[in-house]
Amino acid sequence: MGTEKYLFRGFSPEAMDARCQGRMMLRREMLVTAFLKAQGVEAGASVLELGAGTGQTMARVAGSFPGVSFYGVEPLGAYVDHAACQYTAKNPCLKYVQGTAEQLPLAEASVDCAYAINIWHHVPLPRLCASVQALARVIKPGGRLFLIEPNFLHPYILFYQSLTDGERSFFPWRELAAIKAHFEVQRTAFCFFFPEAVRTVSPVGQEIETALEGFPFLGGSVLYTCRRI
Question: Does residue 223 have a pLDDT over 70?
Fold first, then answer.
């Protein structure tokens, strides 16, 4: 009990790594990788993951970008320690640091691109504007931000977020409105027809998912590509 407050819902780093496997992990990795490649990220650039968790997503994405500096900021110290131990030794371009959204431990205009996966809806409302300001401070003008958030238009997602302890929904008139104070939303898309519990999908299932997930009420996640104003 005493250590659970340092973990997400009591999951140890090892348990969280095991939980975040399968089809959805791979697709998130592919989406972030595609976003960074579209921005022309290459050696010498710097990328921030806000809410890096146990570090495995950033470590996997970084494998496609040799020479790029990746910074993972995570508020839970146990996860930061795990990430540094597991991944930084294998790739010195990875750096995991403990910090919160509104107090990012990075220099001003030091990041070319940033991304966050299912993080922004967890930022408490009183800290929302300060968190967006902090993120805008560290991203270079014109830099890009990629967000993956639960899609409240999906009935199951809205129901799940409402009934799960510690969860909230990401609403365009609240979280996205705060983000728009410093970022221009350039593209909105939807993804993940099948829920996270579905670990594997056949090739036919993948085609079905691709065809259906683009509809706002069928995609479990909403994707925002933004530009720092």
Answer: yes
